[in-house]
Design a protein that fits this description.
The structure holds 2 protein chains of 2 kinds. Chain A is of the alpha/beta class. Helices cover 42% and strands 13% of the residues of chain A. Chain A has an 8-stranded mixed beta sheet with strand order 2-3-4-1-6-7-8-9, with helices on both faces. Chain A starts with 6 loop residues before the first strand and ends with a helix. In chain B, the strands form 2 sheets. Chain B has a 7-stranded mixed beta sheet, with helices on both faces. Chain B is 37% helix and 17% strand. Chain B is globular and about 70 Å long. Chain B is built from 12 helices and 9 strands. Chain B is of the alpha/beta class. In chain B, a hairpin with a 6-residue loop joins strand 5 and strand 6. Chain B has 2 domains: 39 residues, no CATH class; 245 residues, Rossmann fold (3-Layer(aba) Sandwich). Classes of the chains: A alpha/beta, B alpha/beta. The interface between A and B is large, with 50 and 60 residues.
């Protein structure tokens, strides 16, 4: 007889908040019999293809590329507590997070989300520290500028050309992150079926980026998202909250950016680019700039300097979208990974743009650019870890820091 | 966009249901299931929405009055901006039904606008609207207050100062728990402008009392806005004497007509004297708005209430739920 879940929870958060990384690690953990994990998979409702895709990317220390699937996935995990045999259903209404931005921007919730919310007892809300937009005021910037002027001397700082400055119109989607998150919660609390207390596990993802400061997750929220902190403090009767810091990846993946050592034969590459024998080389050489061209073509230049300059210019170029044009890359053979990235390039984050552009250049100059990305010691250490030991949690309620299901356990109990 | 009448018993009617599907199936009479549900707009509240909001719990209505450019909206946005960085005078941000509206008003003072000097957009001459903030005490649990701030153009107050009849059109005055009269410090420093500015304020206040629109128990705050101008000018003795004389005149005119007459100084955005700190004096005003409650005002549902827009229904529904709990 199929067990009926006693609790239902949703995974929510703005785009690039870390939901997918968590899910990838969770999908791996709850399917392992030899890992100490308080919750195990009882069954899956829906197709596991996407979960397997992101799990594999997680196991391969790769960032999960953005796809249309994130917003279309209709899957729920039913997890069983090994001690109490209680079942919880975890549903992910929109991994892309775009519908949550949309709630703020267009003032609409999907009926699917509303139906899920109606039957939910709580949520896990993800926040990524790198993607927090803050409400910086112009007067603060101007005050800082004046201080710098005082130090450097006013004559060194030029007056802004007011005639040419264009004021940007208000863009609702660029509202501060904490405001959007408060509104997300206000919308939840404003539903007529809302029944407090509603359990909310706030998870700060990529905690390894913050952990060195020894701040607790509660303190981080208080200092970085004070409006959200005040809202949750004031509405304790509506939201019962626990804060977690989570590293689902366990550390940084290999950098996509070029290092000087990525160029197998920098002088040969400079010659190819400067001759401009194909559309891509001509385009790249044009973007390298006159000063860099001169240094790169100087036969007396130190080879290390050439490599460094190439790396610097290439990193600037790959950080911008629009490098790919069909005609420009027509003569090159693109590998499967590059083609996959190209197919989904309209849904990509900045990191994905970097990765795509890097792959395109590797494919265009296979003899000159290495595909073996360089690693530093931290990343090598990460590779040494058993997958189950990669993740770690921080927070007042944490018992086992490697048990990624702890926020779910808290939600249940 | 369809605006179906709200039916609390209809599970699909938690907000207006906007049909955005491909239409009904051919040959069937089944209604299309909408893909989206509208939630509250987050824009400034209309008169009807604001009244709906006040139905089930006390609300402090705060009228911020003053001529064009005196700093009304800037005062309010600076308070909101203070909450963005932490609690204000031991008060925590608890809720706002008008977050997008507040955000839009802050835009020209934020770095993201790329504006070289912070500014505030002028409030258009439209029917009165309201912005909402709920705050809670950080020290006393469960001590929360809902504040509704008028968002009214300076022209409207200028007309009201000329006529008690025009004043009677400003129905929000009757509900005001606090009336904040801004005196523009920038104009106060200009000899040819200062007394016109002061007399304009006195005339408006007189008109509000004479028309019977302001209650005796309404707290009157006479506030020098843009006080950084005085600071930059050195706040000389002559400036202090001027302000003292203004205070004396207001006391003479209005102390007998109100139980509470207060004088304050604020510098919402002290660009002339940044050392004052952002929103100088605004926290003290907030404290007054929250702690001084002239009387508990319970709004009664009138038979004539016919709001059907989501923004109007949201407040009613939201607070009926709060009343039940």
């Amino acid at each position: 007889m199929t067990n009926v879940p006693s609790n239902q929870f949703l995974l929510i958060g703005l785009p690039s908040a870390g939901k997918t990384s968590f899910l990838a690690a969770l999908w791996y953990m709850v399917n392992q019999s030899d890992i100490k994990c308080a919750l195990k998979l009882e069954r899956l409702e829906g197709d596991s293809s996407y979960l397997n895709l992101i799990r594999d990317a997680w196991l391969e220390y790769q960032s999960v590329p953005r796809t249309r699937l994130e917003s279309q996935i209709e899957v729920s995990m039913l997890l069983e507590d090994q001690q109490t045999q209680k079942i919880l259903r975890l549903t992910f209404p929109d991994l892309s997070g775009e519908s949550f931005t949309s709630q703020w921007a267009t003032r609409q919730v999907t009926t699917k989300y509303d139906a899920l919310l109606r039957h939910s007892n709580g949520c896990i809300l993800f926040i990524h520290p790198d993607n927090v937009l803050k409400p910086h005021r112009t007067d603060s910037l101007n005050a800082l500028t004046e201080i710098i002027e005082g130090i450097q001397g006013a004559s060194e700082v030029s007056e802004p050309d007011l005639a040419q400055s264009l004021v940007k119109p208000w863009d609702v989607e660029k509202a501060p992150t904490q405001v959007q998150l408060v509104e997300l919660l206000q919308i939840i609390a404003g539903r007529d079926y809302f029944s407090p207390p509603f359990r909310l596990a706030v998870v700060i993802s990529a905690w390894d980026l913050i952990g060195a400061t020894s701040k607790s997750p509660d303190d981080w929220i208080s200092s970085e998202l004070p409006l959200l902190n005040q809202y949750l403090t004031s509405n304790r009767t509506s939201f019962e909250v626990a804060y977690y810091g989570l590293s689902a990846q366990g550390g940084r993946y290999a950098a996509v950016q070029f290092l000087p050592t990525d160029f197998k034969s920098p002088q040969d590459l400079v010659e190819i680019l400067s001759k401009g024998g194909d559309k891509l080389s001509a385009w790249l050489w044009g973007r390298i700039g006159d000063a860099a061209q001169a240094l790169l073509q100087d036969k007396t230049s130190d080879p290390n300097q050439v490599s460094s300059r190439l790396a610097k210019r290439f990193n600037e170029i790959i950080s911008q979208a629009g490098m790919y044009e069909e005609e420009r890359f027509a003569k090159f053979h693109l590998r499967g990974e590059t083609k996959d990235l190209l197919a989904n390039r309209h849904y990509q984050s900045e990191k994905d743009v970097l990765r795509l552009n890097r792959c395109l250049l590797e494919d265009a100059y296979p003899l000159n650019i290495s595909r073996e990305k360089q690693y530093d010691q931290a990343i090598l250490d990460l590779h040494q870890k058993h997958p189950a030991r990669r993740t770690f949690l921080n927070g007042r309620h944490v018992i086992n820091p490697h048990d990624i299901t702890e926020p779910l356990q808290w939600l249940m109990h | 966009m369809s605006e179906a009448p709200h039916d609390p018993m209809n599970p699909n009617a938690s907000g207006n249901a906007q049909a955005k599907t491909g239409g009904t199936a051919k040959g069937t009479s089944e209604a299309a299931v909408p893909d989206f549900i509208d939630v509250h707009r987050g824009k400034e509240l209309t008169e009807t929405s604001a009244i709906a909001l006040a139905y089930s719990k006390p609300v402090q209505w705060v009228v911020i009055a003053g001529p064009v450019g005196s700093g009304k909206t800037t005062l309010l946005t600076s308070l909101y901006e203070l909450f963005q960085w932490g609690c204000v005078e031991n008060h925590l941000f608890a809720e706002s039904l008008t977050l997008p509206a507040l955000e839009e008003r802050c835009h020209l003072s934020r770095m993201i606008s790329d504006i070289p000097e912070p500014d505030t957009a002028r409030t258009p001459y439209d029917p009165p609207t309201y912005l909402h903030l709920k705050v809670c005490s950080s020290t006393t649990k469960r001590s929360c207050k809902d504040l509704l701030f008028t968002d009214v153009s300076g022209e409207m107050f200028e007309y009201a100062s000329n006529s008690t009849e025009a004043c009677k059109e400003l129905k929000f005055l009757r509900r005001a728990s606090h009336f904040v009269m801004l005196l523009d410090s920038e104009k106060a420093l200009r000899f040819e402008k200062r007394w016109v500015m002061v007399e304009g304020a006195r005339t408006l206040l007189r008109s509000c009392f004479d028309s019977g629109m302001l209650r005796r128990d309404c707290v009157i705050h006479i506030v020098w806005s843009k006080f950084d101008y005085f600071v930059e000018a050195g706040d000389k003795q002559e400036h202090k004497e001027f302000r003292d004389e203004v205070m004396t005149r207001f006391q003479s005119d209005f102390e007998s007509r109100t139980r509470h007459l207060q004088f304050r100084e604020v510098a919402s955005r002290p660009t002339k004297a940044p050392n004052l700190g952002f929103a100088k004096g605004v926290g003290i005003l907030l404290n007054q708005w929250v702690t001084v409650c002239p009387r508990v005002r319970s709004m009664k549902l009138s038979a004539g209430f016919s709001g059907s827009r989501e923004s109007e229904l949201f407040g009613q529904r939201h607070f009926e739920t709060a009343k039940k709990s």
